[in-house]
Design a protein that fits this description.
Protein name: RDD domain-containing protein
Domain RDD: 5-131
Largest sheet: 2 strands, antiparallel
Transmembrane segments: 12-37, 49-68, 95-118
InterPro entries: Pra-immunoreactive (IPR051791), RDD (IPR010432)
Oligomer: single chain
Distance between the termini: 15 Å
Number of strands: 2
Membrane topology: Multi-pass membrane protein
Length: 137
């Protein structure tokens, strides 16, 4: 099976879009509920938990897409080409991205950037751990 992989730039733009859209959406909800506009809540563990849940659950429910990836016309897929499962997204985001990132003091993020830029299959550390790749939709 031939896969069409997405570039580092496409993946970066999708991640930035996700972060900003989710931040603004939650800030709007916060404003509606409290009457105050603030993004101070992003500095705590609450934001991390919401963002990780979003990145773990949304691709499973939305066939490999999160909002940013949908806009960029790319999606997360399993290496066998099927839709991702909860196991794939948990391994990818929680273990491969966050836990490995914390344990390596961010070095894994730098290594992952080089992997996406230079590997033929464009897979980063978290893709390898999760059994996924990001490809054209």
């Amino acid at each position: 099976m031939r896969h069409t992989y997405s570039s580092f730039l496409e993946r970066l733009i999708a991640r930035i879009l996700d972060f900003n859209i989710l931040t603004l959406s939650i800030a709007l909800i916060f404003f509606i509920v409290t009457g105050n506009f603030s993004i101070d809540w992003r500095n705590g563990i609450t934001w991390d938990a919401i963002y990780i849940l979003y990145l773990v659950i949304t691709p499973v429910l939305w066939s490999g897409y999160v909002i940013g990836k949908r806009i960029c016309k790319i999606k997360m897929k399993r290496t066998d080409g099927d839709d991702v499962t909860l196991t794939n997204t948990l391994l990818r985001e929680v273990v491969g991205f966050h836990i490995v990132g914390i344990v390596t003091f961010g070095v894994s993020l730098i290594v992952s950037i080089f992997m996406v830029v230079f590997r033929e299959d464009k897979r980063a550390i978290h893709d390898l751990i999760g059994g996924t790749y990001v490809g054209k939709a």
